[in-house]
Design a protein that fits this description.
By secondary structure, this protein is mostly helical. Helix content is 69%, strand content 1%. The longest helix has 30 residues.
Length: 478
């Protein structure tokens, strides 16, 4: 109710205004169901380990622990090369190398597991349902910052929902769907908080705590929310100079210092639920693996000790080839490289995606330039201040997603673009805003032309259907 109330305050309360989103979600549901049903069993990265975690929770309760033997690279390679043929699945239940993960997603999936008698498709569909929430979050994050630009909001939502690799992830059994939803909800909550709505710091603390109970990829939120609190606290207080008081700037500084106590209380209000909820899993990890392994990562790295390492790759091929391969594979796998990275797309598709990124990126620069020249809203107005702070939060989200990916690759050789999907909402907003900037420049602001921005990203829908029915299913089935 709180989020709903504050969305209404932005002028987005009319149900009729959001009928395009409803249509978009129906299309998303159809395409996601096709991916969930037609992707051959286990042909999504780490899906067997996620499934086995859920099976353990459903059968034995929470929570399993990762142990030596849960990772068998030779057996995994045999399964992948044999396309998970039924006669190779004799030791399938031993694939348990995700047992170090926080349990929230698996607790939720264990209900689906019991109700469906362990149906993989049912659990994929549940993940896809969580993914629909990410699409909705992308839409409302955009519309709160750009309330008159529904075409940009729909374009961003369409890119989040139909980007081929993201669709494949959301329609598989993977805790990324719940983690992405929690990131999206936190971004919505931060924007409402920055605008002065009814979302409080402790609400954001609960969201961050739930994220920490889902996946370590949400950890950056524990730093992002304090930045939002700082931005909110740092907003200048307009105080007119008076001959009977201090100068205006000195009085403003005094008032800012007077706000220090509320700022500290806001940080504490946020931190308490985040630490309590996240601490539940840290206590479990310490009990299972010893201090200071608060996230189970050290134990995980010990178990998967024979995974390819970055240092070994650089030593073998040199920095030049390493960087070239890293950029190429990261780009390709961000847009679409299916199965266990074994099924890349034709080269012309990657060229088209690169072209789309060039259009979106250059258009974003154009949009920022034109906004700076034509803004009719005073830079120090409350509306402009909170929106500027909102854009700062989105920019930080994108930067932190990239930095987390780079950090992970300092040790393990993991050129998988999907690891940057924690920043997919700001990426999609930037792309939609960039495409729309070129549309406005070339075609003006005609009412009909605005839907071309959405149409560009809806072209991913027939591509997704083609990929699942004509590429992924026939080429990856046993």
């Amino acid at each position: 109710m709180t989020v709903q109330h504050d969305i209404k305050k932005t002028g987005l309360s009319a149900v009729s205004q959001h009928w395009p989103l409803a249509i978009l979600l129906v299309i998303y549901g159809i395409v996601a169901a096709l991916f969930a049903i037609h992707t051959p069993p286990w042909q999504a990265p780490d899906e067997p380990a996620h499934y086995n975690y859920t099976a353990q929770v459903a059968q034995n309760g929470c929570c399993p622990t990762i142990e030596v033997g849960d990772w068998n690279s030779a057996y995994l390679e045999q399964l992948k090369s044999g396309h998970f043929a039924p006669d190779l699945l004799g030791k399938f239940a031993t694939i348990q190398y995700e047992d170090h993960q926080p349990p929230l997603y698996y607790l939720m999936q264990s209900v689906v597991f019991k109700l469906s008698s362990g149906s993989l498709i049912a659990m994929r569909l549940f993940s896809a349902l969580l993914g629909a929430g990410i699409v909705i979050c992308a839409y409302f994050v955009t519309l709160m910052l750009l309330p008159e630009r529904i075409e940009v909001a729909l374009g961003a939502a369409a890119l989040v929902g139909f980007l081929p690799q993201h669709m494949a992830v959301l329609a598989s059994m993977n805790n990324d769907s719940l983690a992405g939803l929690e990131i999206g909800l936190t971004l919505v909550g931060i924007l409402i908080y920055l605008k002065g709505g009814r979302v409080k710091p402790w609400h954001l603390g609960v969201l961050v705590g739930l994220g920490l109970l889902t996946k370590l990829s949400t950890l950056f939120l524990a730093g992002l929310v304090p930045v939002a609190i700082l931005l909110k606290w740092w907003e200048p207080l307009p105080i007119a100079p008076s001959p009977y008081t201090e100068r205006g700037d000195n009085a403003s500084q005094s008032m800012q210092r007077a706000k220090l106590q509320p700022f500290i209380m806001a940080l504490i209000s946020f931190a308490l639920p985040a630490v309590i909820l996240g601490g539940l899993w840290s206590v479990h990890s310490i009990q299972a693996y010893g201090f200071p392994d608060v996230f189970g990562q050290r134990q995980h790295n010990l178990v998967v000790a024979d995974q390819p390492r970055t240092a070994d790759r650089i030593a073998a091929i040199g920095w030049g080839d390493y960087l070239r391969q890293g950029l190429e594979t990261t780009f390709n796998s961000f847009w679409g490289q299916f199965g266990w990275m074994a099924l890349p797309l034709p080269g012309w598709m990657y060229a088209a995606f690169l072209g789309l990124m060039i259009v979106g990126g250059s258009g974003l620069v154009l949009a920022v330039f034109r906004k700076g020249r034509s803004s009719a809203v005073p830079l120090n107005s409350p509306t402009e201040q909170w929106r500027r702070n909102g854009w700062i939060i989105l920019g930080l989200t994108a930067i932190l997603a990239v930095l987390a990916y780079l950090y992970y690759n300092t040790e393990f050789l993991q050129f998988q673009g999907r690891y940057m999907f924690s920043g997919i909402i700001p990426f999609a907003i930037g792309m939609a805003l960039g495409v729309d900037a070129w549309r406005r420049l070339v075609l003006g602001r005609f009412v009909i032309s605005r839907w071309l921005t959405v149409a560009v990203f809806l072209l991913l829908v027939p591509l997704d259907i083609y990929l699942i029915l004509k590429v992924i299913e026939p080429l990856l089935k046993p």
